[in-house]
Amino acid sequence: MKKVYSDATAALADLLRDDMTIMCGGFGLCGIPDELIDAVRASGVKGLTVISNNAGIDGVGLGKLLETRQVAKMISSYVGENKEFARQFLAGELEIEFNPQGTLAERIRAGGAGIPAFFTKTGVGTKVAEGKEVRDFDGEAYVMERGLFADLALVHAHRGDTEGNLAYRMTARNFNPMMATAAAVTVAQVEHLVRPGEIEPDHIHTPGIYIGRIVHVPVREKRIEQRTTRKRAEAAQAAAGGGAV
């Protein structure tokens, strides 16, 4: 089965529709499938429910879909770096389902494993638990959380072969592997596309069985969400004194 497509637009052409649910990998701007996000924006689909740890930043990543009002609901953990996100939420223009970060990760993992729900102590006694079943286990209260499964997952990988086997790099791994398992169709953009067998079996993080389509994106602008550096004088002083730079 041919999995490699010429570009992101071609890979998503017959998959996108209004009011669908899309999972989108990434943490901040690290490991986001930016080319695939751009293709979603260009398609004009609207009313989307997007499951992602965060919504990028203004004008970057999922922030682009917020600008064009294509997102109706976000299921997220952290959204503090996006002013447009905050504005739409406070104005009642965007529905948000907040999750503790570990709970969000487990909801996605559960969805990919075919687990419809699970119980966790996180969120008990807070707004997170409002409207959800709370059950006692061994004298402790646990709140029930539902697994998440999407119509489409968009992920980014460092390497991928033509059969869909993926390997992620460092922090860019984040939510991508679990999201790849938790959708009816998963489309991956990869920085380095190789032949089958070129990725050592022990180095494969997502087996190709989960990947429906692949786009080779060899050149990417890797944005930094917040750049923090030490002033040169302070760095020189630390180096002279044997401190860390």
In CATH, the architecture is 3-Layer(aba) Sandwich
> What Rg do the Cα atoms give?
20 Å
User: Mean pLDDT score, rounded?
Assistant: 91
The CATH class assignment is Alpha Beta
State the fourth-level CATH superfamily: Glutaconate Coenzyme A-transferase
Regions with little confidence, pLDDT below 50 for 5+ residues = none
Task: Give the secondary structure arrangement, pairings included.
Elements: E1 4-5, H1 8-12, E2 21-24, H2 34-43, E3 48-51, H3 63-67, E4 71-76, H4 83-90, E5 95-98, H5 101-113, E6 117-120, E7 134-137, E8 140-146, E9 150-161, E10 166-167, H6 176-180, E11 183-194, E12 213-216, H7 232-240
Parallel strand pairs: 1-12, 2-3, 2-9, 3-4, 4-5, 9-11, 11-12
Antiparallel strand pairs: 6-8, 7-8, 9-10
Please characterize this protein's 3D structure.
This is Succinyl-CoA--3-ketoacid-CoA transferase. The structure is a single chain. This protein has about 240 residues and is an alpha/beta fold. The protein has a single domain (about 5-115, about 150-215), classed as Glutaconate Coenzyme A-transferase (3-Layer(aba) Sandwich), CATH 3.40.1080.10. The chain contains 7 helices and 12 strands. The chain has helices at about 10, 35-45, 65, 85-90, 100-115, 175-180, 230-240; strands at about 5, 20-25, 50, 70-75, 95-100, 115-120, 135, 140-145, 150-160, 165, 185-195, 215. The strands form 2 sheets. Strands 1, 2, 3, 4, 5, 9, 10, 11 and 12 form a 9-stranded mixed sheet that branches. Strand 3 (about 50), helix 3 (about 65) and strand 4 form a beta-alpha-beta unit.
